[in-house]
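Researcher: Please translate sequence to structure tokens.
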Amino acid sequence: MDQTIQLLKSLTESHGIPGYETEIRTLLRDYMAPLGELSQDKLGSLICHQSGDGPKVMLAGHMDEIGFMVTHVTKEGFVKFQQLGGWWDQVLLGHRVVIKTRKGDVIGVIGAKPPHMLPADERNKVVQKKDMYIDIGASSRDEVTAVGINIGDPIVPHSEFVVLANEKTYLSKAFDNRVGCAVVIDTLRHFQQNPAPNDLYGVQTVMEEVGIRGATTSARAVNPDVAIILESDIAGDVPGIKAEESDVKLGAGPSLLMLDSRMIPNTKLRDLVIDTAESLNIPLQFSVIMGGTTDGAAVHLHGTGVPTIVIGVPARHIHSHGAIIHRSDYDHAVKLVTAVVAKLDAATVENLTK
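Model: Translation complete:
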């Protein structure tokens, strides 16, 4: 197993939903400890500093994944839950989950009233999360509490990392946004051997999926002059998506976010990314996503403003138990980010806001 596959496998298979990032943060700390001086803000975002002369450059990926929280246990022994992060109801039923308790992990499956017992006019309707439950095989509330399950326990998708048949694409939970975390790590690895012309901070933020909270606090800790957000993007090459809705395709290169619901990127920084990609023959795609936002929404509003852009690795089926990315998109993203960071000296960063 090569280094990149091992990195992506370990990060995606690790658990860490918003507010419960201890496990993934511990793993990220192990990866980042050799790469710079580590610190942590009081929400739990992890900051790796490679000290240097020049402007403060912040690279940020969010470590949290979407999941659930236990909110109630019925007297019959079924676990009710609340989502943490955005879930589409249609991707939930029949999937296995891990309930993280003080006594250890408990496996369950998401269920609902069987279609065989629904009237004909309801069978084709989407089952809503409020009508679902998690079944751990218990028959009473006492059985559930006996294994350690309590209200407030986090719940994580049960899904392993798989290299798919063509060996170019990878399937796993949590590519949103462990793929961005991995890009941060590989970029820091590069500049540990080839110092950047700036003061470089690699940040792994918490609680992005519930309102870009860790980005807000970590930006205060770093106080950056410029920021690059590393994310998973939404691949538009699946059935049902029209070309005018998205041109982003798996295997066609990393994406540059041109607009989302809460951020318009700095135009000079945007053009620097485009020019860098062209000069290095790195394929680059352009993305517009009005149905969501990224950590960039918080970071670019820090202080009196921070020039910010978002570079993404396209993924199919994000916010589900199984997303798919393409290895070449990841490799090109790392190459592009390292090349852009290498250009962010004092004069270049000063010119971004002139």
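Researcher: Any highlights?
Model: The radius of gyration is 21 Å.
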